[in-house]
Amino acid sequence: MSESELGRKWDRCLADAVVKIGTGFGLGIVFSLTFFKRRMWPLAFGSGMGLGMAYSNCQHDFQAPYLLHGKYVKEQEQ
Amino acid sequence: MVARVWSLMRFLIKGSVAGGAVYLVYDQELLGPSDKSQAALQKAGEVVPPAMYQFSQYVCQQTGLQIPQLPAPPKIYFPIRDSWNAGIMMVMSALSVAPSKAREYSKEGWEYVKARTK
Fold this sequence. Notes:
Chain A: It is a single-pass membrane protein. Chain A is an all-alpha fold and 78 residues long.
């Protein structure tokens, strides 16, 4: 794995971690305010779940160096 | 009767807010693969600052307040990768020459002590 590819993977991992932890935290806030009487545990639970998902994605990304990241391109109807 | 209807309404409102948040997360694929999360973060970085600026302009127009222009944040350039790599190379070269340098300095020290005791 070249250094630039490694750098890109680290960037992707960090961005993924930020998004997932933030999303988990946000969902925790919503559920804490709506159903769980402003308790703290939904926030911790959501953030922890986001962190775990990000760690799992990063681990898979670093352990599978031969997978290519592509994107779907829709066929244009003529 | 009214209390029951009101508690049912409250539950429906809370349920719709929570369900809307869950649907938004599912639709934007925020908890999906890392590519989608990275794309969502990039899109947020492009969309949020102009939206905040437009909102502040709208608030200024409606209230007549003038928000002072903040100075631009200083651009700090610190290449972590280069300094880390340089640090690693320095440590490894120091470790590789450490035995010969130690031998040289101890020999010099011994010669010095010998010369002083004569």
